[in-house]
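[Q] Does anyone have a clean C-alpha coordinate version of this?
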Amino acid sequence: MATNAVGGGAVDAEGFLKILLHQYQVGYTRALNVTQRAAGANMSVDVNVDSSSYGGALFATASAVPYFGYTNAVINSTVTTADPTNPRKDIVVAYIDLSLVTTGTTNNLGAFKIKVVPGTAAASPVDPSGATIQASIGAGNPYVSLARVSLTAALGSITNAVITDLRTPAALAMNYLYGGSSNTKGHLVPNQADGTVVTTTDTNSVSAAMLTTNAITLGYAQITAADFTTASTSAVQVTGLTAAVTIPAGGRKIKITAYSGTIYSNASAHVVVTIWDGTVGSGTQLSANDFNNGGTTSITGLGACMAVVTPSAGAKTYNVGFHVSAGTGHFVASATAPAFILVEAI
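[A] Here you go.
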Protein backbone atom coordinates (compact mmCIF):
# COMPACT_ATOMS: atom_id res chain seq x y z
CA MET A 1 0.00 0.00 0.00
CA ALA A 2 1.16 3.53 -0.74
CA THR A 3 -0.29 6.89 0.25
CA ASN A 4 0.66 10.11 -1.48
CA ALA A 5 0.06 13.84 -1.33
CA VAL A 6 0.42 16.14 -4.32
CA GLY A 7 0.93 19.86 -3.82
CA GLY A 8 4.50 20.37 -2.80
CA GLY A 9 7.89 18.74 -2.90
CA ALA A 10 8.72 16.39 -5.76
CA VAL A 11 5.73 15.70 -8.01
CA ASP A 12 5.90 13.64 -11.20
CA ALA A 13 3.54 13.69 -14.17
CA GLU A 14 1.46 10.82 -12.78
CA GLY A 15 0.87 12.60 -9.50
CA PHE A 16 0.11 15.89 -11.24
CA LEU A 17 -2.57 14.30 -13.46
CA LYS A 18 -4.02 11.88 -10.91
CA ILE A 19 -6.76 14.29 -9.87
CA LEU A 20 -8.18 14.11 -13.41
CA LEU A 21 -9.07 10.44 -12.93
CA HIS A 22 -10.82 11.26 -9.66
CA GLN A 23 -12.94 13.93 -11.32
CA TYR A 24 -13.44 12.63 -14.86
CA GLN A 25 -14.03 9.35 -16.64
CA VAL A 26 -11.66 8.57 -19.51
CA GLY A 27 -12.69 9.57 -23.01
CA TYR A 28 -12.30 12.27 -25.62
CA THR A 29 -12.24 15.91 -24.55
CA ARG A 30 -12.53 17.61 -27.93
CA ALA A 31 -13.02 16.49 -31.55
CA LEU A 32 -11.36 13.18 -32.63
CA ASN A 33 -14.45 12.41 -34.71
CA VAL A 34 -13.75 9.91 -37.49
CA THR A 35 -14.75 10.62 -41.09
CA GLN A 36 -13.88 9.52 -44.61
CA ARG A 37 -10.65 10.94 -46.01
CA ALA A 38 -11.24 14.63 -46.79
CA ALA A 39 -8.85 14.57 -49.76
CA GLY A 40 -10.90 11.85 -51.40
CA ALA A 41 -12.34 8.60 -50.08
CA ASN A 42 -9.94 5.65 -50.12
CA MET A 43 -8.98 2.86 -47.74
CA SER A 44 -8.23 5.23 -44.88
CA VAL A 45 -10.05 7.50 -42.43
CA ASP A 46 -9.42 10.95 -40.98
CA VAL A 47 -9.44 11.59 -37.23
CA ASN A 48 -10.30 15.26 -36.94
CA VAL A 49 -9.54 18.32 -34.85
CA ASP A 50 -12.01 21.08 -34.01
CA SER A 51 -12.18 24.65 -35.37
CA SER A 52 -9.32 25.67 -33.08
CA SER A 53 -7.14 22.88 -34.54
CA TYR A 54 -7.27 20.78 -31.42
CA GLY A 55 -8.36 17.26 -30.49
CA GLY A 56 -7.58 15.28 -27.37
CA ALA A 57 -8.50 12.53 -24.94
CA LEU A 58 -7.95 11.41 -21.36
CA PHE A 59 -6.51 7.90 -20.90
CA ALA A 60 -5.73 5.62 -17.99
CA THR A 61 -3.63 2.46 -17.82
CA ALA A 62 -4.87 -0.72 -16.15
CA SER A 63 -3.13 0.45 -12.98
CA ALA A 64 -4.88 3.86 -13.16
CA VAL A 65 -1.90 5.88 -14.35
CA PRO A 66 -3.36 8.91 -16.19
CA TYR A 67 -2.26 10.27 -19.55
CA PHE A 68 -3.60 13.09 -21.68
CA GLY A 69 -2.98 12.92 -25.42
CA TYR A 70 -3.68 15.54 -28.04
CA THR A 71 -3.09 16.56 -31.65
CA ASN A 72 -3.13 19.90 -33.46
CA ALA A 73 -3.76 18.42 -36.90
CA VAL A 74 -5.97 15.85 -38.65
CA ILE A 75 -4.51 12.33 -38.47
CA ASN A 76 -5.09 9.99 -41.39
CA SER A 77 -5.02 6.27 -40.61
CA THR A 78 -4.98 3.33 -43.01
CA VAL A 79 -7.71 0.68 -43.09
CA THR A 80 -6.65 -2.89 -43.91
CA THR A 81 -7.80 -4.17 -47.32
CA ALA A 82 -11.35 -5.56 -47.22
CA ASP A 83 -11.91 -9.31 -47.34
CA PRO A 84 -13.03 -10.38 -50.85
CA THR A 85 -15.77 -12.69 -49.53
CA ASN A 86 -17.01 -11.64 -46.08
CA PRO A 87 -17.73 -8.36 -44.28
CA ARG A 88 -15.57 -7.16 -41.37
CA LYS A 89 -15.81 -4.71 -38.48
CA ASP A 90 -12.79 -2.60 -37.54
CA ILE A 91 -12.38 -0.29 -34.54
CA VAL A 92 -10.60 3.07 -34.72
CA VAL A 93 -8.75 3.77 -31.48
CA ALA A 94 -6.64 6.57 -30.04
CA TYR A 95 -3.90 5.38 -27.72
CA ILE A 96 -0.74 6.36 -25.86
CA ASP A 97 2.41 4.56 -27.00
CA LEU A 98 4.16 4.17 -23.65
CA SER A 99 7.44 3.28 -25.35
CA LEU A 100 7.63 6.93 -26.45
CA VAL A 101 6.96 8.35 -22.99
CA THR A 102 10.38 9.63 -22.03
CA THR A 103 12.16 12.59 -20.52
CA GLY A 104 14.05 12.94 -23.78
CA THR A 105 11.32 14.93 -25.59
CA THR A 106 9.01 17.62 -24.28
CA ASN A 107 5.41 16.42 -23.93
CA ASN A 108 6.38 12.99 -25.33
CA LEU A 109 6.23 14.00 -28.96
CA GLY A 110 4.49 11.39 -31.11
CA ALA A 111 3.23 9.25 -28.21
CA PHE A 112 -0.43 10.02 -29.03
CA LYS A 113 -1.38 7.68 -31.87
CA ILE A 114 -4.33 6.52 -33.96
CA LYS A 115 -4.85 3.01 -35.31
CA VAL A 116 -7.61 1.17 -37.16
CA VAL A 117 -7.65 -2.28 -35.57
CA PRO A 118 -9.09 -4.87 -37.98
CA GLY A 119 -11.63 -7.43 -36.85
CA THR A 120 -12.12 -10.89 -38.31
CA ALA A 121 -14.01 -11.23 -41.60
CA ALA A 122 -17.06 -13.46 -41.23
CA ALA A 123 -20.62 -13.87 -42.49
CA SER A 124 -21.77 -12.15 -39.27
CA PRO A 125 -18.73 -10.16 -38.13
CA VAL A 126 -18.24 -8.72 -34.64
CA ASP A 127 -16.03 -5.96 -33.27
CA PRO A 128 -12.46 -6.96 -32.40
CA SER A 129 -12.24 -7.83 -28.70
CA GLY A 130 -10.45 -5.75 -26.11
CA ALA A 131 -7.68 -8.33 -26.06
CA THR A 132 -7.33 -8.10 -29.86
CA ILE A 133 -7.14 -4.31 -29.71
CA GLN A 134 -4.59 -4.41 -26.88
CA ALA A 135 -2.41 -6.88 -28.75
CA SER A 136 -2.55 -4.70 -31.86
CA ILE A 137 -1.53 -1.43 -30.17
CA GLY A 138 0.90 -2.91 -27.67
CA ALA A 139 0.54 -4.47 -24.24
CA GLY A 140 -0.23 -1.97 -21.51
CA ASN A 141 -0.85 0.97 -23.84
CA PRO A 142 -4.06 2.77 -22.74
CA TYR A 143 -6.65 3.47 -25.44
CA VAL A 144 -10.14 4.82 -26.13
CA SER A 145 -12.40 3.72 -28.98
CA LEU A 146 -13.41 6.40 -31.46
CA ALA A 147 -15.41 4.69 -34.22
CA ARG A 148 -16.44 1.47 -35.90
CA VAL A 149 -15.79 0.92 -39.61
CA SER A 150 -18.16 -1.69 -41.10
CA LEU A 151 -16.59 -3.04 -44.27
CA THR A 152 -18.64 -4.97 -46.78
CA ALA A 153 -16.92 -7.71 -48.80
CA ALA A 154 -14.44 -6.31 -51.34
CA LEU A 155 -15.12 -2.70 -50.27
CA GLY A 156 -12.82 -0.36 -52.20
CA SER A 157 -13.09 2.88 -50.23
CA ILE A 158 -14.26 4.07 -46.82
CA THR A 159 -17.14 6.55 -46.78
CA ASN A 160 -19.03 8.14 -43.91
CA ALA A 161 -21.90 5.69 -44.49
CA VAL A 162 -19.84 2.82 -43.02
CA ILE A 163 -18.46 4.78 -40.03
CA THR A 164 -20.23 4.68 -36.63
CA ASP A 165 -19.20 7.12 -33.90
CA LEU A 166 -18.20 5.30 -30.68
CA ARG A 167 -16.65 8.20 -28.77
CA THR A 168 -17.34 8.58 -25.05
CA PRO A 169 -16.70 12.03 -23.57
CA ALA A 170 -14.38 12.57 -20.62
CA ALA A 171 -17.33 13.62 -18.48
CA LEU A 172 -17.60 14.29 -14.76
CA ALA A 173 -17.15 11.07 -12.81
CA MET A 174 -18.77 12.40 -9.63
CA ASN A 175 -22.50 11.88 -9.09
CA TYR A 176 -23.27 15.13 -7.32
CA LEU A 177 -22.71 18.84 -7.74
CA TYR A 178 -21.59 20.65 -4.60
CA GLY A 179 -22.22 24.24 -3.65
CA GLY A 180 -24.45 26.65 -1.80
CA SER A 181 -23.71 28.75 1.25
CA SER A 182 -22.65 25.69 3.27
CA ASN A 183 -21.00 23.86 0.35
CA THR A 184 -23.03 20.74 1.11
CA LYS A 185 -23.79 17.90 -1.26
CA GLY A 186 -26.22 19.17 -3.84
CA HIS A 187 -28.25 17.68 -6.65
CA LEU A 188 -27.41 14.84 -9.00
CA VAL A 189 -25.54 16.11 -12.03
CA PRO A 190 -28.30 17.19 -14.47
CA ASN A 191 -28.64 14.93 -17.50
CA GLN A 192 -31.11 15.46 -20.31
CA ALA A 193 -31.00 11.78 -21.25
CA ASP A 194 -32.24 10.51 -17.89
CA GLY A 195 -34.84 13.26 -17.47
CA THR A 196 -33.18 15.25 -14.69
CA VAL A 197 -33.08 18.42 -16.76
CA VAL A 198 -35.27 20.00 -19.46
CA THR A 199 -33.59 22.00 -22.21
CA THR A 200 -34.81 24.30 -24.96
CA THR A 201 -34.63 21.35 -27.37
CA ASP A 202 -37.35 19.50 -25.40
CA THR A 203 -40.09 21.31 -27.37
CA ASN A 204 -43.54 19.77 -26.82
CA SER A 205 -42.06 16.80 -24.99
CA VAL A 206 -40.86 15.65 -21.60
CA SER A 207 -39.33 12.34 -20.57
CA ALA A 208 -41.28 9.49 -19.00
CA ALA A 209 -39.31 9.95 -15.78
CA MET A 210 -40.64 13.50 -15.52
CA LEU A 211 -44.20 12.72 -16.58
CA THR A 212 -45.46 10.01 -14.24
CA THR A 213 -49.01 8.65 -14.53
CA ASN A 214 -50.43 11.08 -11.97
CA ALA A 215 -48.44 14.16 -13.03
CA ILE A 216 -51.54 15.63 -14.72
CA THR A 217 -54.45 13.22 -14.28
CA LEU A 218 -54.87 12.76 -10.54
CA GLY A 219 -58.14 10.85 -10.60
CA TYR A 220 -60.96 9.67 -12.84
CA ALA A 221 -64.21 7.74 -12.46
CA GLN A 222 -67.09 7.11 -14.85
CA ILE A 223 -70.52 5.53 -15.04
CA THR A 224 -71.84 3.86 -18.16
CA ALA A 225 -74.54 1.39 -17.16
CA ALA A 226 -77.61 3.65 -16.76
CA ASP A 227 -78.84 7.15 -15.94
CA PHE A 228 -78.59 8.34 -12.37
CA THR A 229 -82.03 9.63 -11.34
CA THR A 230 -83.29 11.50 -8.29
CA ALA A 231 -86.30 13.54 -7.14
CA SER A 232 -84.31 15.12 -4.31
CA THR A 233 -84.49 18.89 -4.05
CA SER A 234 -81.10 18.98 -2.31
CA ALA A 235 -77.82 17.65 -3.58
CA VAL A 236 -77.29 13.88 -3.42
CA GLN A 237 -74.33 11.78 -4.48
CA VAL A 238 -74.24 10.64 -8.11
CA THR A 239 -73.48 6.98 -7.56
CA GLY A 240 -70.07 6.03 -8.95
CA LEU A 241 -68.75 9.54 -9.48
CA THR A 242 -66.18 9.76 -6.68
CA ALA A 243 -62.47 10.48 -7.16
CA ALA A 244 -60.05 9.89 -4.29
CA VAL A 245 -56.76 11.62 -5.18
CA THR A 246 -53.41 12.66 -3.74
CA ILE A 247 -52.67 16.35 -4.23
CA PRO A 248 -48.97 16.92 -5.07
CA ALA A 249 -46.87 19.43 -3.20
CA GLY A 250 -45.95 22.69 -4.89
CA GLY A 251 -49.18 24.68 -4.85
CA ARG A 252 -50.43 23.69 -8.32
CA LYS A 253 -54.01 24.48 -9.23
CA ILE A 254 -56.39 21.53 -9.45
CA LYS A 255 -59.26 21.35 -11.96
CA ILE A 256 -62.26 19.11 -11.22
CA THR A 257 -64.70 18.38 -14.04
CA ALA A 258 -68.10 16.72 -13.66
CA TYR A 259 -69.76 15.80 -16.94
CA SER A 260 -72.89 14.29 -18.41
CA GLY A 261 -73.83 14.77 -22.03
CA THR A 262 -77.46 15.31 -21.02
CA ILE A 263 -79.32 16.36 -17.85
CA TYR A 264 -83.06 16.96 -17.64
CA SER A 265 -86.19 16.81 -15.48
CA ASN A 266 -89.63 15.50 -16.41
CA ALA A 267 -91.11 18.67 -14.86
CA SER A 268 -90.61 22.38 -15.24
CA ALA A 269 -87.57 22.68 -13.00
CA HIS A 270 -84.03 23.68 -12.23
CA VAL A 271 -81.60 20.78 -12.76
CA VAL A 272 -78.36 21.26 -10.81
CA VAL A 273 -74.95 19.55 -11.01
CA THR A 274 -72.54 20.26 -8.16
CA ILE A 275 -68.92 19.42 -7.26
CA TRP A 276 -67.99 18.73 -3.64
CA ASP A 277 -64.82 18.52 -1.61
CA GLY A 278 -65.77 15.64 0.66
CA THR A 279 -69.25 14.22 1.20
CA VAL A 280 -72.07 15.60 -0.92
CA GLY A 281 -74.31 17.75 1.26
CA SER A 282 -71.99 18.02 4.25
CA GLY A 283 -68.64 18.72 2.65
CA THR A 284 -67.62 21.92 0.84
CA GLN A 285 -69.44 22.73 -2.38
CA LEU A 286 -66.88 23.96 -4.93
CA SER A 287 -69.04 24.70 -7.97
CA ALA A 288 -72.51 24.30 -9.51
CA ASN A 289 -74.20 24.27 -12.91
CA ASP A 290 -77.88 25.25 -12.62
CA PHE A 291 -79.85 24.39 -15.79
CA ASN A 292 -83.37 25.84 -16.03
CA ASN A 293 -85.57 24.16 -18.62
CA GLY A 294 -87.70 27.28 -18.80
CA GLY A 295 -90.98 25.50 -18.12
CA THR A 296 -90.60 23.11 -21.05
CA THR A 297 -90.08 19.57 -19.80
CA SER A 298 -88.78 18.30 -23.15
CA ILE A 299 -85.71 20.59 -23.12
CA THR A 300 -82.42 18.99 -22.05
CA GLY A 301 -79.13 20.57 -21.07
CA LEU A 302 -75.42 19.79 -21.01
CA GLY A 303 -74.39 18.61 -17.55
CA ALA A 304 -70.91 20.11 -17.39
CA CYS A 305 -69.57 21.60 -14.18
CA MET A 306 -65.99 22.63 -13.37
CA ALA A 307 -64.10 23.89 -10.34
CA VAL A 308 -60.54 25.18 -10.08
CA VAL A 309 -59.00 25.16 -6.60
CA THR A 310 -55.59 25.28 -4.93
CA PRO A 311 -55.77 22.69 -2.15
CA SER A 312 -53.03 21.71 0.28
CA ALA A 313 -50.92 18.67 -0.55
CA GLY A 314 -52.30 15.35 0.63
CA ALA A 315 -55.34 13.12 0.27
CA LYS A 316 -58.59 14.53 -1.10
CA THR A 317 -61.93 13.05 -2.17
CA TYR A 318 -64.07 14.86 -4.72
CA ASN A 319 -67.71 13.95 -5.44
CA VAL A 320 -70.44 14.86 -7.92
CA GLY A 321 -73.83 15.95 -6.59
CA PHE A 322 -77.16 16.26 -8.42
CA HIS A 323 -80.64 17.55 -7.57
CA VAL A 324 -83.80 19.08 -9.08
CA SER A 325 -86.32 21.65 -7.95
CA ALA A 326 -89.26 19.54 -9.18
CA GLY A 327 -90.02 16.22 -10.86
CA THR A 328 -87.41 13.52 -11.46
CA GLY A 329 -83.96 14.56 -12.64
CA HIS A 330 -81.87 12.46 -15.01
CA PHE A 331 -78.07 12.51 -15.07
CA VAL A 332 -77.63 10.58 -18.30
CA ALA A 333 -74.91 7.96 -18.81
CA SER A 334 -74.40 5.11 -21.25
CA ALA A 335 -71.66 2.92 -22.68
CA THR A 336 -71.26 5.22 -25.67
CA ALA A 337 -71.68 8.45 -23.68
CA PRO A 338 -70.12 7.99 -20.22
CA ALA A 339 -70.70 10.45 -17.41
CA PHE A 340 -67.53 11.13 -15.45
CA ILE A 341 -65.52 13.04 -12.88
CA LEU A 342 -61.98 14.05 -13.83
CA VAL A 343 -59.38 15.61 -11.48
CA GLU A 344 -56.32 17.22 -13.09
CA ALA A 345 -53.27 19.17 -11.95
CA ILE A 346 -52.91 22.28 -14.14
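[Q] Thanks! Anything notable?
[A] Residues 13-23 form the longest helix (11 residues).
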